[in-house]
Amino acid sequence: MSDTTDYLKYVAERSAAYLNLPADERRERRKKKREPWQVRWFGQLLPLGIRIWWTGRKKEEEPAARF
Is the pLDDT of residue 67 over 80? Predict the structure, then answer.
């Protein structure tokens, strides 16, 4: 039961802090661009390495049929 009350208290505090900000600052926070989810989850290097590998791979050509 205390987990629920702690969570509600946290949400209420965060909401109150956000609503007490000036409107200009709230607008700027919404406009600020977030980093991609891949970077947030895995850091910078892993998504970059996968992207380089994915774009650099060759599509294998099917061998020509010989009759």
Answer: no
